User: What shape does this take?
Amino acid sequence: MTNIVEFPGLGLEFNVSSVAFTVFGVPVYWYGVLIGLGMLLAVTLALSQAKSFGIDPNRMVDVIAIGLVTGVLGARIYYIIFSDIEYNTLFDFFNLRGGGLAIYGGVIGALLGCLIACKWRKVPLLPMLDLTGMGFLIGQCLGRWGNFTNQEAFGSNTDLPWGMISPATTRFLEGRAATLAAEGVNVLPGMPVHPTFLYESLWCAVGFLLLFLYRKHRRFNGELALLYVMWYGLGRFFIEGLRTDSLMITPLGLRVSQLLAALSVLAAGTVWVIARVKTAGKPLKVPEIPPRTATVRLQTDGGVKKVEISWPYDADEPDKAQRREMAEKVLAKQGEGEEKEPEKAEEKPAEEGEKAPATEEKEEPGEKEEQEPEEEAEKDSEPKQEA
Assistant: This one.
């Protein structure tokens, strides 16, 4: 689908298609391409910064993979819960080509997946969340341009120079005018609207640059994640107030994302202040990256033994022959340790036995020899006195 997008105040006009290209006749949309590109850049950033945050890059890949899956599921579930669109079949639920993803749901889903994966892969959670926060800002910055190509996620009318208008914005506002009026928002379908996708994209870009520059000055693990929540929530609160397609809590008449943004800013801000006070004057503790491990099965005279081997996280992974050799060395060391233990146990009584005679020879006999003549002398003197 192609739209003629105009910015009358700037004298600009663009012919924008929502389809990037086709594969065997199947259209691939810019929205998906841009989200995929954002994810790729976020993963690249995370892998490049992993070691400086005390994270094993190999283990991180597993965490990212799980976080991506749970993030997409969270974004879809969040949208379906608060959307007024009916989804009657399982196919409707998984049909992402028709749209219907919510960023806040994606963030929540990705965080839950990250919690589970970090525990499973033994990745430090707070440093991982720091990198995740910066990655989210990259993905959100690029992903919002998918809203531009689809001509969605825009705001109410504006007379600012960068106001945007297209056939898609006009059609949408014509269909939503009555609903928006009931919510207290009056719109003119044929007039320019706020390009809220652009506002959020620029806000996320600035946020990423600030966090990236601050990363080496962070005071505690998890600080960047808290700053992300505060920064994004603050911008989203005001931008969401301009939009005309917000998911609503109908009984309360509240915008879901606006409410969530306000609560998240307050919660993250409170935790950040407390953590800053507690860590004042203390150096940042970057976790040590543990060695990588593997279990090797070795055939020995006593049967099959499972031997655990390890090697530095930044070394090349050993092949099958090298692993076997490492396992044999571990077994050999274990055998040497078992042989030495009985020897030490036998030596202890021997040492005690040698010390005892030595004290008897040097001290006790000498004392007895010196005391005996004195006793004899006393015995000899006593009869003489009696006599």
Observations:
- Residues 218 and 224 are 7 Å apart (CA to CA).
- The first strand starts at residue 2 and ends at 7.
- Confidence is low (pLDDT under 50) at residues 350-387.
